[in-house]
Amino acid sequence: MLMCRDLARIASDYIDGELGPMDRVSVKMHLMMCGHCRTFIGNLRASVDLINAHSSQQVDEEFVRRIDERVTESLNARNSGNGNSD
Amino acid sequence: MDTATHQSDEDILIQGLKSGNQSAFRKAVRLYTPGMLAVARFYLDHSAAEETVQDCWVTVIDAIQKFEGRSGLKTWLHRIVANRAKNHLRKAKREVSADFSETLDPELADRFAPNGRWATPPSLKINESAQALMENDALSDCLDQHLAALPETQRSALMLYEAHQHKSEDVCNILDVSASNLRVLLHRGRQKIFLMVETFQETGEC
Ligand SMILES: [Zn+2]
């Protein structure tokens, strides 16, 4: 029988739909009987949503500008190297 | 004229990149650099990762000509970064070290009784949406701190899978980990964030 600790081990696989059908049924049965694990799964899901919502897009503006500069330099070097003579 | 109507934003961006359009590059750099950094950080320390990402953008100027669009632009860029980062590692004769043996975070593992039931069950149910939670600046800062403190391998896996919405196969490919090891990285990282949110909700402190 699936215990709370076993469920905690495979909780992410359950959330992501990566469990096989048998394990999935075991988890569902356990969740019907166990409020603690329902809370756990719910909170883990909320944590995943939080990671999603977290911008993660915050990259140092200064760094992005340095990339722009290098790209522009290379683009210019390439264009002037082409010798547009038509 | 209306052949252009079926083009996606990504197609238009790719065309811009192929023709060496400066504003296309500015746009792409802003769009894709965060994910590229996450890939590089899987392998390298902060400054080496930034250097690698910068170099990649310069190589993209020429390499984009050969881009055929079989994979999406994002996946293609992430592969370029991963390959460069791996080369960098090989030269430095270092290897990525990660522990894939234990699925449970030790702190969470301690909360079960010997019979496998909860000894210290989750204390509070999170009811607010992620958006609502993120409006709390203190919690958002705390999340920043905890994500930053994760082992690189866990953070990169989370960023690529969660924040950048890659499919598992792509993440495995880019990071060179097996499917089961990716599952461990994701689960370990998520548990840390779960524990952080729980502590924050209980104590109001990070
Ligand atoms: Zn349970």
TrEMBL record, chain A:
Domain Putative zinc-finger: 4-38
Pfam families linked: zf-HC2
Protein name stated in the entry: Zf-HC2 domain-containing protein
UniProtKB/TrEMBL annotation, chain B:
Gene Ontology MF, one: sigma factor activity
Ranges where the RNA polymerase sigma-70 region domain occurs: 29-94
Organism domain of life: Bacteria
InterPro entries noted in UniProt: RNA_pol_sigma-70-like, RNA_pol_sigma-70_dom, RNA_pol_sigma70_r2, RNA_pol_sigma70_r4_t2, RNA_pol_sigma_r2, RNA_pol_sigma_r3/r4-like, WH-like_DNA-bd_sf
Alphabetically ordered keywords of this record: Sigma factor, Transcription, Transcription regulation
GO biological process terms, semicolon-separated: DNA-templated transcription initiation
PANTHER family in the record: ECF RNA POLYMERASE SIGMA-E FACTOR, RNA POLYMERASE ECF-TYPE SIGMA FACTO
Family: Belongs to the sigma-70 factor family. ECF subfamily.
Protein known as: RNA polymerase sigma factor
Species of the source: Marinobacter orientalis
